[in-house]
Known about the structure:
The complex is a heterodimer.
Chain A: E1 7-9, H1 14-23, E2 27-30, H2 36-41, E3 49-52, E4 62-64, E5 68-72, H3 77-81, H4 84-89, H5 91-98, H6 103-108, H7 111-117, H8 125-130, E6 134-139, E7 142-147, H9 148-151, E8 152-154, E9 157-158, E10 165-172, E11 179-185, E12 196-204, E13 210-218, E14 225-226, H10 228-232, H11 241-254, H12 265-283, H13 285-288
Parallel strand pairs in A: 1-3, 2-3
Antiparallel strand pairs in A: 4-5, 5-10, 6-7, 6-10, 8-9, 11-12, 12-13, 13-14
Chain B: H1 30-34, E1 50-56, E2 62-68, H2 70-74, E3 78-83, E4 91-92, E5 110-111, E6 117-118, E7 124-130, H3 133-142, E8 144-149, H4 156-160, E9 173-181, H5 184-190, E10 193-201, E11 213-218, E12 224-228, H6 236-243, E13 250-254, H7 270-280, E14 284-287, H8 290-296, E15 303-311, E16 317-329, H9 335-344, E17 355-363, H10 377-395, H11 399-406, H12 426-435, E18 447-460, E19 469-476, E20 482-486, H13 495-507, E21 514-518, H14 535-562, E22 569-572, E23 575-578, E24 600-601, H15 602-611, E25 617-623, E26 642-655, E27 661-671, H16 678-697, E28 703-704, E29 707-708, E30 728-732, H17 754-766, H18 777-786
Parallel strand pairs in B: 1-14, 12-13, 16-17, 20-21, 27-30
Antiparallel strand pairs in B: 1-7, 2-6, 2-8, 3-7, 4-5, 9-17, 10-15, 11-12, 11-14, 15-16, 18-26, 19-20, 19-25, 22-23, 23-24, 26-27, 28-29
Amino acid sequence: MTLPKFDLLQPSTLGEALEILSTTQNAQPIAGGTALLVEMRGRKAEPGVLVDLGRLGDLHGVAPAANELVIGATTTIAELLKNPHVTERASILRDACSTFASPLVRNRATIGGNVAQGSPAGDMAPALLVLDASIELRSVRGKRLVRAVDFWKGPRKTTRKSDEMVVSIRIPLSQTPWLSSWKKLGLRKADAISVASAAVRLSLTADGKCEGARVAVGAVAPTPLRLAKSENALVGKPISREAIAQAAAAAAASSVPINDVRASVDYRRRVVEVLVRRALMEAAWEVLT
Amino acid sequence: MTDPVTPKTLPPHHLPPLKQIGKPLRRVDALGKAVGATQYAADFTMPGMLHAKVLRSPIASGKIVRLDVARARALSGVACVLTGADLPDAKLGTDMPGQSGRAARTGSDAPVLATDVVRFHGEPIALVAAETLEIAEAALQLIDLQLEPTPGVFCPEQGLMPGAPNVFGTDNAVASYKIRKGDVEKGMAQADLVIENTFFVPFVEHAYLEPEAGVAWVDEQGTITIRVCTQVIEHFRTVAKALGVPQNKVRVMGTMVGGGFGGKEDVTVEIFLALLARATRRPVKLVYTREESFLATSKRHPFKITHKTGVKRTGRITAAEITMLADSGAYPYLTPYVLLYATGMAAGPYKIDNVKIDSVAAATNQPFTSAFRGFGGPQAAFAYESQMDEVAKALLMDPLELRRVNYLKTGDTTVTGQAIRSAAWSEECATRALAALGEKTPDTPDRKVGRGFASYFQSYGRIMWFHDTSRAWVGMELDGTVIVRCGVPDIGAGQSNSLCQIAAEVLGVPLERVSIYSTDSALTPLAGTSTATRQLYMSGNAVLQAAGVVRASLVKKAAEMLGVSPEDVDLADGEASVVRSPGSGAARASSSPSGLGGGMPLADVAARCASSGLPLAHLAQFNAPFTEGLDPETGRGDIWPDFTFGAQAVEVAVDTETGEVEILKSAACHDVGRAINPAAARGQIAGGSHQGLGYALMEEYVVKDGMTQTPSLSEYLIPTAVDFPSTEAILLESGTGVGPFGAKGIGEPSLTPAAPAVANAIADALGVRIFSLPLTREKVLAAADAGKNVVKPDRHW
């Protein structure tokens, strides 16, 4: 199928873009288009107006501040992958970018697009969840910051209102070092939609006590999940294989995956436990051995 | 005991020293593809061109209760809407003259457009041509199509049951074969052990880079001309038959093809385009989307294959009883032939005296199945090579040793009694492929490493009772350059290049001096299909013959000019020169001083040939050996001209917690007879192996109740470049093939052993076999669970 008919608007300021979104029925922001154009061609999305964000320079790039990293929504996955601030201060996001689709897609796809699309299998979400990230939404009515844990509401559903736009992702920077690990299982090595994914971050004391834990998983529930039960199995205890196994089992128990052509419920639940365990083992490896 | 994977020295053989053949020369089609200059079918446009779309059935089985196109016809910008009612007799001719093991059955031709019933999801119902693609799509929405769903057949077993809904003929049986050799009951009685297993393989999509596309127009002489990506330009005859016009009023101009693999062997867009161009008298373009390409075209056959093998403790196989059930989908297409290939190769490259094979293909309301690289061979090989490893396991015998005891040798006969006439280097190929794996990678706690290999034999050239022929024209220009004209469709495998390299060799010119005109049914001599691994064999021999006649003229004239006898003349590097032949006193020094290498430029020789009336061009026809079919009761007879033999070995790491399988190493060794262009031969092996590994591990076109569940490349996964390591290609050259210079075919054979090699490697890693493709993570995980307490046998490799 050819693309459905649409008008393309190319605002040159953010204000102009927000104005369009607030006054236009059925308008949809577009950046890389790697997801939206495919949906439009399959008639799964038919926005009457596309608002191209390509000319909005202030939505693009990574700005390091003292206590947070501000990532513009239209920053591409490829740009994040080679950004030194991301590598240094949010390495799990870089790891998630490295398994994202393929080089061609990474050159076009943006972090804001992946977040806003709201796929339960979106590969940015688990990393952002464990990084305690917030998503900055703007509209003519003002701006609001939504914590990542509150952002995704269901398959393709987010808290974003139709007149709002994701303008940045804000990642708080911690003074203490955290250990992290990202695991993704797809059905092939590139251009693969996650069958299950896991992101973990741990803060461990010198003697191996777990002071903080973040565990998040993708593709095993209607939204990306942050898993309090898994985190509770770890926090306040010395890190150990047993604690990790409990956290991983809790991840499987918290999962409510679907059967589809890619994988069964049982398989997804089983491998998410493996991924969480492996991610935790990898993050804590030096302390455990 | 010697190390079992040290390859033996190859038998001595003598290949003549050649100048252009056997060199990895840059392919004549490489530059255009590399810089994006090559025009593919969808790249062509014409002034005043219309755009076409096809209305397809949204259900798998039903009656058409209403089909009203009035509103679509009335839409502004729509030039033409056609339904089956506008073309009452248009059938998509599927040629099955007696090869099905039954008499040709009526009703085997698919309708071009469905009129009263639809038999599969995606079946074409109406055609639209409009000023723009958008209008054509809008017109499809305006067609009032009402269907009444009817009970369907969704697996071949169901189709063959009494009282099943009728899809084809009276009993849904599309084709069946019987092969009887020796006495299978006696053979089983002689066996020390009888092992029986059943194997399953799925629908597979070709998934080439280039979806089907074409542009058609009616030229000033009234000839319907179709520029299309196809493996078979001879479909101009199929088009003529469907339209009821003389065959010389349809012309197919092929383009460079962006992948065929059998999917462009049947008619795709051609008849639709011809009908619309004839109706509108305007050029019409039709390009399938990827999703339409998935829905509209053939798939590789699913098979259920049961092997019952009787074997002595020594490993000698005494009997094989094999049954095969194939899914033909909604229409026969090439199913009868694919089933024949699978049946004829069902027992593998093994000498077995007592054989009973029964095969049948049944129609279902599923995607129609037809040609796919290997043409039944890969399905057969997955079963027979999995079975060989299971037999070895039951005997506590090394799988290579078991095969050594049973490999077919030159002079032995296949299950149909056909004698192997060329080299049968199965053992040499298997030992080399295994040796190439090197040191074994150690296990880690969650990753078990296994190794497996598979041998195979695969025909090249068409079934001999097709009476296959090919033609090629070779001529030398007056400046010493060479032109080849040959109707060969180049589907990306180096078909044109090989022909150029053969002409260059025979005529003694560098490859750069050879140009080829190909794939035009009106202007290039018909060369037959680019299928069945036949073009190098058939058209290569035609070029060899044609170039030989031109060479004779040049040698005769050069001998006169040089004052020597023709036997003393050699053509090389664009010159004729005198060589010292046994008993001759002539020497190089006596040749003309004007040539670069001390020889006489071929341009001078060609000019003198022309002025003295010696022919500088020749049209040759090569005929394959002709036979007249198998005995229908016993299946005795010769089927194919010859076979390629080879093997592939892989090392895999299996993640026992997730079921992920990583190919660590892969090596394939094939006796290609003679590598006309070794770089191209290696390319074929690299591609065939990658496609075969995809068949092994991920490719499955899922159909549920007749409906496609994998409608796009998002659900239907093919391997990317990073999924598998490169397969090391080891080329052996026995020089014994029936192709030019002793070449065998490698296009299809290169795919065949990959999947069973992986299945065997996973079974080696886990101690548990998986009996169906693809070897998905979920199946592998279940096998890993089952294999937790299995003790693996020791192996030498």
